[in-house]
Specification:
- The complex is a heterodimer of chains A (162) and B (140).
- With 162 residues, chain A is mainly alpha-helical.
- Chain A has helices at 2-5, 9-23, 28-45, 57-84, 104-116, 142-160; strands spanning 93-98, 120-125, 131-136.
- Chain B has a domain at 5-100.
- The radius of gyration of chain B is 21 Å and the shape is elongated.
- Classes of the chains: A mainly alpha (162), B mainly alpha (140).
- The interface between A and B is large, with 47 and 59 residues.
């Protein structure tokens, strides 16, 4: 019964929050309309959400904090490379990261994180879903770069999506 | 709470100049990096903090000078963080295709052409997802 009315509680909450933030005003009317959207949208889009990944929220918050910090660091890192490293000293490389994550949601978050953090952009997954193709702006030691991404992000994501 | 308008304006100006500086560095990266794949790194990163600093400046101005809270900046940064990796991903995939087709304008950069993944398969942009992989369409 509860599942019929609120098929995706997390999505409903996110929609209400987004609506209040977008209108930028916390009154009864805003909240009411937000709740109407929060209830209606998940019901009408339910066919496109076949599975709901189980997410553990406490490690997810810690993960967000780490990624936010890394994004700030990544900006200074890339800015320094752009300003001070001549092209002849630049060592761009393709990295192939073997994936231990198995759900599409977890792999998507991992790929997005890689794109937003130090000098790496994720490009593609393999057709078998076991490898991620990543381009690194400056990676003199590609194996170390792969190990870093795996232990800093993937290990934590395995805790969140399981 | 009120720290005086001149001080607030100083803070906001600093944040705007910082943001503009990062946006400028990101754009300079577009000009000077050797090939398309390297150039992708500029706009996905250096510009993120550039926009972030400007948004914090906007929040600070509304709060300290006008005395009201705004939340729109939060929404802007959320959508930026969701869309920036996806557009970079799309551009990179198109580049892989053009490279493989031997388009004269899509030369491999200093990193060369990416090696295929181990196990005799190919990257998903060149071949359909295999059955049983996370990207297949079984059950959708």
């Amino acid at each position: 019964m509860m599942n019929r009315i609120v098929p995706h509680p997390g999505l409903s909450l996110l929609l209400v929050l987004m609506w209040v933030v977008m209108v930028n005003d916390l009154t009864f009317g805003t909240l009411f309309l937000g709740i109407v959207f929060g209830l209606a949208v998940p019901i009408f889009t339910a066919p496109w959400w076949p599975e709901r990944p189980a997410v553990r929220f406490a490690p997810a918050l810690g993960y967000l904090a780490i990624v936010a910090w890394d994004i700030v660091i990544a900006n200074f890192h890339v800015a320094a490379i752009i300003l001070f490293k001549p092209n002849r000293n630049l060592r761009p490389a393709w990295l192939t990261i073997p994936l231990e994550l198995t759900t599409p949601e977890a792999i998507t978050v991992f790929a997005g994180t890689i794109s937003l953090t130090p000098g790496t952009v994720s490009v593609d997954v393999s057709a078998c879903g076991n490898y991620l193709l990543v381009h690194a702006l400056h990676a003199p030691d590609p194996a170390a770069e792969v190990a870093k991404a795996k232990q800093r992000y993937e290990a934590r994501l395995k805790e969140i999506f399981r | 709470m009120t720290i005086g308008v001149p001080l607030a304006e100083l803070l906001v100006s600093f944040l705007i100049v910082l943001g503009a500086g990062f946006a400028l560095i990101g754009s300079w990266g577009l000009v000077r990096l050797p090939s398309l794949m390297e150039r992708l790194h500029g706009p996905t990163k250096a510009t993120t903090l550039g926009l972030g600093a400007m948004l914090v400046g906007s929040v600070a101005w509304f709060q300290l000078v006008r005395g009201e809270w705004t939340t729109h900046e939060l929404l802007v940064s959320v959508f930026l963080f969701v869309t920036a990796p996806i557009s970079a991903n799309m551009i990179a995939k198109v580049h892989l295709h053009r490279e493989r087709q031997g388009e004269p304008s899509a030369q491999p950069g200093p990193a060369g052409v990416p090696a295929p993944p181990p196990g005799g398969t190919d990257w998903a942009t060149h071949s359909a997802p295999q059955l049983g992989s996370p990207g297949d369409f079984v059950g959708d």
